């Protein structure tokens, strides 16, 4: 704030706050025109944390596809070959259950974080807000801060304006293209993707790179808070996870009201004023364009920038910090101290979320670490039920799909048991290449007449000879009447 | 379909669809122009269940464009693809056409994979590991339904892994079988053989050819009746691959073993068919598959 403390502070007009409720009796359209938001940049505790999260998430997102693991990309979802490589793991489509587990863990984490501290995800980690922040930073660097941008947009199309707009769009497009390229690089080996695109090979790769670039450009450059307000379901069902002990960005109404301008030398209390000087900085910094002083709103993404803005003003006014702060509804109401608020974090809802989440994480990790890198599907031949073959034997034929989930060629031994004298008449050892799967025909024989007519439960044991590990699968053996 | 007799339903569907789309457009246009009186508490004035009020929150204006896009897309789609009654659409798209285009594309895509095998001798293709893997997959998808996953067949479906061949076991003959299919025809022979008793005797003679358990008295009586069979199966009963007549001396019984099964075959005959694959598989695929099948009963030391 550049305004002098002595004179009544200069209010920078608010261009876009929340849509003001229309005055009674006024005719309004059924549709609302999008009002462009010009957030003012601010520094402070939360602004710093937002940037830390931007760097963390984007470092991982942009960097991960470039890392190698042995002879291949460390994280690669090869949709064409239907193999999913994550660090040392080779997953088959049959491992989809792990994705389900991951999604459940993500959902529960969201529930937990939301119950404890509101929309942490929205404010600090969601790609929508993260990319919006990156795009806004570019905008800020090129076109200047809020007031400069307001002036620029209102002004005529001078050479300078065209230059700035062109530069901004160029940088935006570059960031978008790189983002689209990186995203596709998770599904196609990224080191081959670049030369491929330059040679105009791979129509679908080109399509998806442009598709995700366009999505990034449109969402982070233009739609921004509109996505959060109108498209994202999370804002709408967060009330199911909130309670009165959830940490949210709150405005301390009893302390702040009645708000109003003041001269620093005059005792505001004598004039009946609260501590809010109505500088509207909290509104100007808000990326979704709301006035936090109206209380909790579904648009609020919980980024805390208004907290930073208000604290800088409070410091200047020599008032205590925290007129706008992270607190709970109960905390504000009962004027609880920090420790009292923290004590209410441990409530049944939070404990249950935590317990389920920990159980799921442990279960998933245990399942992943103890997993046998071998899968077998058994399909009994349907056309021929059973047949009598030379040597007085009764024979059934099976197809075994053996899936090698290791990155080395393996030799597997097939054995079967469940009936007296049952043996594998076909080749008992099969070789399967690294991360390959193969259908193998297997013949099982029993001595004729050694089992009653009908269906008999049997099982196959497939064991990896070099790497160890065994899989047992059930099937049936049919004996004719 | 009633399309044969009248085009009523075509007109009905077309009219309903177009009127529906136009109505959506008009509704959108009217809603865009409409203005409502704002109230201080921003509600529509509707209240249910005592305190449930309907808020008057406006839709973002850009959202309207999504509606417009769906209308434009819908009209464009209906113009290009079949959807309006019997109108086939400007692109003349059909499921059949799409299927054929995809199959043609797949054929050109897999062609280079097979190019290497075209110039190789079938016997060499059989021991090539890559060709073996391809052949195995082709067999599993196209042949295993009848001949079994292990190619050892079952009653009525020949075993392809033994040395007994109905129509010849050279790669060329196997290839011919795959391309054109085969029809094995055993005519009913009861009338030519004689009385039912003669047929029984003949059955025992046939059993005796392979050294299977039989009544030697009946067999010796039946021997003279074998002239009726000799035309196809040969005087010695060793069959004739040019006719597809099976060898009766090798103790391999495609349609069942024993007196009852052989008597039934003589009395009733049988027509057994191997369907032609030339329409389903490409020439190159059939070549690889023929070599794979040949390799099942001709295993050189290298393949093991």
TrEMBL record, chain B:
<dbReference type="GO" id="GO:0005886">
    <property type="term" value="C:plasma membrane"/>
</dbReference>
<keyword id="KW-0249">Electron transport</keyword>
<feature type="binding site" description="covalent">
    <location>
        <position position="143"/>
    </location>
    <ligand>
        <name>heme c 1</name>
    </ligand>
</feature>
<keyword id="KW-1133">Transmembrane helix</keyword>
<keyword id="KW-0472">Membrane</keyword>
<keyword id="KW-0560">Oxidoreductase</keyword>
<dbReference type="InterPro" id="IPR050597">
    <property type="entry name" value="Cytochrome_c_Oxidase_Subunit"/>
</dbReference>
<comment type="pathway">
    <text>Energy metabolism; oxidative phosphorylation.</text>
</comment>
<feature type="binding site" description="covalent">
    <location>
        <position position="146"/>
    </location>
    <ligand>
        <name>heme c 1</name>
    </ligand>
</feature>
<keyword id="KW-0997">Cell inner membrane</keyword>
<dbReference type="InterPro" id="IPR008168">
    <property type="entry name" value="Cyt_C_IC"/>
</dbReference>
<dbReference type="GO" id="GO:1902600">
    <property type="term" value="P:proton transmembrane transport"/>
</dbReference>
<dbReference type="Pfam" id="PF13442">
    <property type="entry name" value="Cytochrome_CBB3"/>
</dbReference>
<feature type="domain" description="Cytochrome c">
    <location>
        <begin position="130"/>
        <end position="210"/>
    </location>
</feature>
<keyword id="KW-1003">Cell membrane</keyword>
<keyword id="KW-0479">Metal-binding</keyword>
<dbReference type="InterPro" id="IPR004678">
    <property type="entry name" value="Cyt_c_oxidase_cbb3_su3"/>
</dbReference>
<dbReference type="GO" id="GO:0009055">
    <property type="term" value="F:electron transfer activity"/>
</dbReference>
<keyword id="KW-0677">Repeat</keyword>
<keyword id="KW-0349">Heme</keyword>
<dbReference type="InterPro" id="IPR032858">
    <property type="entry name" value="CcoP_N"/>
</dbReference>
<dbReference type="InterPro" id="IPR038414">
    <property type="entry name" value="CcoP_N_sf"/>
</dbReference>
<feature type="transmembrane region" description="Helical">
    <location>
        <begin position="62"/>
        <end position="81"/>
    </location>
</feature>
<keyword id="KW-0408">Iron</keyword>
<dbReference type="InterPro" id="IPR009056">
    <property type="entry name" value="Cyt_c-like_dom"/>
</dbReference>
<keyword id="KW-0679">Respiratory chain</keyword>
<feature type="domain" description="Cytochrome c">
    <location>
        <begin position="217"/>
        <end position="297"/>
    </location>
</feature>
<keyword id="KW-0812">Transmembrane</keyword>
<feature type="binding site" description="axial binding residue">
    <location>
        <position position="186"/>
    </location>
    <ligand>
        <name>heme c 2</name>
    </ligand>
</feature>
<dbReference type="GO" id="GO:0020037">
    <property type="term" value="F:heme binding"/>
</dbReference>
<feature type="transmembrane region" description="Helical">
    <location>
        <begin position="7"/>
        <end position="31"/>
    </location>
</feature>
<protein>
    <recommendedName>
        <fullName>Cbb3-type cytochrome c oxidase subunit</fullName>
    </recommendedName>
</protein>
<feature type="binding site" description="axial binding residue">
    <location>
        <position position="274"/>
    </location>
    <ligand>
        <name>heme c 1</name>
    </ligand>
</feature>
<comment type="function">
    <text>C-type cytochrome. Part of the cbb3-type cytochrome c oxidase complex.</text>
</comment>
<keyword id="KW-0406">Ion transport</keyword>
<feature type="binding site" description="covalent">
    <location>
        <position position="229"/>
    </location>
    <ligand>
        <name>heme c 2</name>
    </ligand>
</feature>
<dbReference type="GO" id="GO:0006119">
    <property type="term" value="P:oxidative phosphorylation"/>
</dbReference>
<dbReference type="Pfam" id="PF14715">
    <property type="entry name" value="FixP_N"/>
</dbReference>
<dbReference type="GO" id="GO:0016491">
    <property type="term" value="F:oxidoreductase activity"/>
</dbReference>
<dbReference type="InterPro" id="IPR036909">
    <property type="entry name" value="Cyt_c-like_dom_sf"/>
</dbReference>
<keyword id="KW-0375">Hydrogen ion transport</keyword>
<keyword id="KW-0813">Transport</keyword>
């Amino acid at each position: 704030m550049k305004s002098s403390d002595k004179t009544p502070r200069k209010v920078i007009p608010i261009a876009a706050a929340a849509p003001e409720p229309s005055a009674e009796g006024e005719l309004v359209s059924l549709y609302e025109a999008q009002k462009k938001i010009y957030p003012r940049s601010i520094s402070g505790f939360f602004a710093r944390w937002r940037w830390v999260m931007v760097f963390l998430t984007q470092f991982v997102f942009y960097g991960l596809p470039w890392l190698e693991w042995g002879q291949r990309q460390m994280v690669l979802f090869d949709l064409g070959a239907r193999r999913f490589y994550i660090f040392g793991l080779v997953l088959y489509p049959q491992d989809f259950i792990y994705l389900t587990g991951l999604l459940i863990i993500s959902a529960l984490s969201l529930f937990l974080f939301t119950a404890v501290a509101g929309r942490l995800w929205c404010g600090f980690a969601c790609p929508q807000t993260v990319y919006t922040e990156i795009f806004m930073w570019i905008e800020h660097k090129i076109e200047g801060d809020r007031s400069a941008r307001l002036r620029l947009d209102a002004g005529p199309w001078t050479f300078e304006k065209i230059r700035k707009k062109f530069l901004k769009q160029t940088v935006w497009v570059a960031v978008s293209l790189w983002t689209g390229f990186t995203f596709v690089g998770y599904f196609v080996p990224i080191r081959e993707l670049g030369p491929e695109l330059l040679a105009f090979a791979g129509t679908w790769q080109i399509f998806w790179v442009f598709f995700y670039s366009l999505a990034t450009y449109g969402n982070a450059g233009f739609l921004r808070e509109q996505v959060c307000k109108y498209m994202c379901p999370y804002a709408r069902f967060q009330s199911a996870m909130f309670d009165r002990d959830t940490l949210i960005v709150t405005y301390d109404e009893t302390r702040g009201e009645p708000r109003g301008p003041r001269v620093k030398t005059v005792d505001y209390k004598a004039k009946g004023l609260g501590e809010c000087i109505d500088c509207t900085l909290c509104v100007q910094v808000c990326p979704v364009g709301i006035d936090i002083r109206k209380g909790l709103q579904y648009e609020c993404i919980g980024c805390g920038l208004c907290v930073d803005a208000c604290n800088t003003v409070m410091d200047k006014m020599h008032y205590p910090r925290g007129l706008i702060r992270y607190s709970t509804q109960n905390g504000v109401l009962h004027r609880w101290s920090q420790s009292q608020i923290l004590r209410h974090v441990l409530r049944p809802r939070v404990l249950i979320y935590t317990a389920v989440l920990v159980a799921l994480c442990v279960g998933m990790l245990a399942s992943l670490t103890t997993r046998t890198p071998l899968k077998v599907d058994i399909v009994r031949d349907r056309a021929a039920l059973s047949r009598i073959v030379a040597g007085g034997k009764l024979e059934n034929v099976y197809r075994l799909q053996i899936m090698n989930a290791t990155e080395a060629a393996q030799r597997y031994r097939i054995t079967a048991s469940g009936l007296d004298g049952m043996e594998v008449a076909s080749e008992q050892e099969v070789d399967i290449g690294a991360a390959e799967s193969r259908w193998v025909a297997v013949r099982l024989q029993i001595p004729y007449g050694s089992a009653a007519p009908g269906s008999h439960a049997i099982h196959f044991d497939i064991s990896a000879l070099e790497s160890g590990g065994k899989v047992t699968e059930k099937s049936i053996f049919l004996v004719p009447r | 379909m009633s399309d044969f007799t009248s085009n009523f339903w075509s007109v009905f569907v077309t009219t309903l669809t177009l009127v529906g789309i136009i109505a959506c457009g008009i509704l959108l246009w009217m809603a865009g122009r409409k203005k409502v009186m704002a109230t201080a508490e921003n509600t529509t004035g509707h209240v249910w269940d005592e305190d449930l009020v309907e808020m008057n929150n406006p839709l973002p204006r850009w959202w309207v464009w999504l509606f417009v896009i769906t209308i434009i897309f819908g009209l464009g789609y209906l113009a290009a693809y079949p959807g309006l009654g019997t109108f086939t659409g400007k692109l003349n798209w059909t499921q059949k056409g799409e299927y054929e285009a995809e199959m043609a594309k797949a054929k050109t895509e897999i062609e280079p994979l097979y190019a290497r095998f075209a110039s190789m001798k079938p016997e060499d293709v059989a021991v090539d590991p890559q060709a073996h893997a391809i052949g195995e997959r082709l067999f599993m998808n196209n042949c295993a339904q009848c001949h079994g996953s292990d190619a050892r067949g079952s009653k009525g479906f020949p075993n392809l892994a033994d040395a007994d061949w109905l129509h010849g076991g050279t790669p060329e003959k196997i290839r011919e079988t795959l391309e054109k299919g085969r029809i094995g025809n055993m005519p009913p022979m009861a009338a030519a053989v004689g009385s039912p008793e003669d047929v029984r005797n003949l059955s025992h003679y046939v059993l005796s050819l392979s050294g299977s358990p039989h009544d030697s008295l009946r067999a010796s009586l039946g021997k003279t009746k074998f002239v009726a069979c000799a035309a196809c199966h040969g005087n010695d009963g060793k069959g004739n691959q040019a006719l597809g007549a099976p060898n009766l001396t090798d103790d391999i019984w495609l349609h069942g073993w024993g007196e009852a099964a052989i008597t039934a075959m003589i009395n009733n005959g049988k027509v057994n068919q191997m369907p032609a694959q030339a329409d389903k598989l490409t020439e190159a695929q059939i070549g690889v598959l023929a070599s794979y099948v040949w390799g099942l009963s001709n295993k050189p030391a290298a393949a093991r």
